[in-house]
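We now fix the convention by which a protein and its fold are recorded. Think of the row as the fold of the chain written in a discrete alphabet. Here is one such record, which you should read through line by line.
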Amino acid sequence: MFKSYAGAFALLAASSLMFTACDDSSSSPNAGIDRTNVKNCDEMVKEDVNTWHFIRKDAFGDDAEYIYKAEGRDLIVTIKDSHGSNNTKTYSMYNMESEVGLELAYRAAKATCEDGQ
């Protein structure tokens, strides 16, 4: 029984590689990434959420663009993957209008940036 699972896994892995190899250039990795004004992790300024904009590797090794902004008390994070898809989430737990909330959000964003380098 184990051999059949191993064989199925090998077949799945091989077919994934073949599918990737046949991919056309229009959907190549990084096609949807905007590299303008992207900051290095060390260039992030705690008091300026607009500088919290960086590219890091996702779980598959592709580039993902992270864009942060504050709207009132909320922190809004948009992640654009290498194929141009956007995922936006709003976090109210940080309270961006307080110094403590700003500090916590900054540390989380900086750790996210550094973790993907």
Remarks:
- The longest strand covers residues 63-71.
- Helices lie at 2-21, 99-115.
- Strands lie at 53-57, 63-71, 74-80, 86-91.
- Residues 47 and 105 are 11 Å apart (CA to CA).
